[in-house]
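[Discussion] Sanity-checking designs against the backbone

I'm trying to build intuition for which residues belong where. Below is a structure token string of 202 positions. I'd appreciate it if someone posts a full sequence so I can compare it with mine line by line.
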């Protein structure tokens, strides 16, 4: 009788243990899903910000490249060049800050997409930084034909991102495909980067 009672208690304990384990597993899964949703929501908010700031950057950069830079000695032209570039640089820095807040934890397949987007836009910011330094060093907004092409590529990138952001579901993979060509114009090492992350054939 003692053995039967002991066996009954062991069975009860085992059933209780299984029950606790199942409840704990469900709790962990729900916590994981909630955390994942929070990360996704945060990344989506960052992307929306980048879309708006990038569109403003693209508009100002369009105005910049359309100005008669050869007439920059004119106070009016120089003022317009300065104001437009100041906003371009400011928006780029804001985007850079937001990019640093993107999280790829638990993002699985999308992690590589977010990481490549981060890298791409960091490179764009690097180009804008480089141009800012050049303007300061030469005390002029004069640009070469190659630099103008790169600026036009920046415009294309942010206009593409803004257009894609208007869709209800943002397709990062499609965005990365769309900005590949202009990124190749801006970044001499972009093709190598794509090869390293297995994107060169896309």
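Best answer:
Here's mine. Compare freely.
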């Amino acid at each position: 009788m003692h053995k039967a009672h002991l066996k009954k208690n062991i069975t009860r304990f085992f059933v209780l243990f299984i029950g606790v384990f199942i409840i704990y597993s469900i709790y962990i899964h729900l916590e994981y899903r909630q955390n994942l949703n929070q990360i996704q929501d945060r990344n989506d908010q960052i992307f929306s910000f980048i879309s708006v700031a990038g569109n403003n950057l693209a508009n100002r950069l369009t105005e910049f490249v359309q100005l008669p830079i050869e007439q920059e000695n004119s106070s009016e032209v120089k003022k317009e060049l300065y104001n437009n570039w100041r906003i371009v640089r400011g928006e780029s820095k804001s985007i850079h800050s937001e990019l640093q807040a993107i999280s790829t934890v638990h993002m699985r397949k999308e992690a590589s997409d977010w990481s490549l987007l981060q890298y791409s836009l960091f490179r764009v910011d690097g180009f804008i930084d480089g141009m800012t330094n050049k303007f300061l060093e030469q005390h002029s907004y004069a640009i070469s034909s190659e630099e103008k092409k790169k600026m036009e590529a920046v415009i294309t990138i942010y206009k593409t991102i803004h257009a894609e952001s208007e869709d209800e579901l943002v397709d990062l993979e499609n965005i990365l495909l769309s900005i590949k060509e202009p990124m190749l114009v801006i970044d001499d090492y972009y093709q190598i980067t794509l090869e390293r992350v297995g994107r060169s054939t896309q």
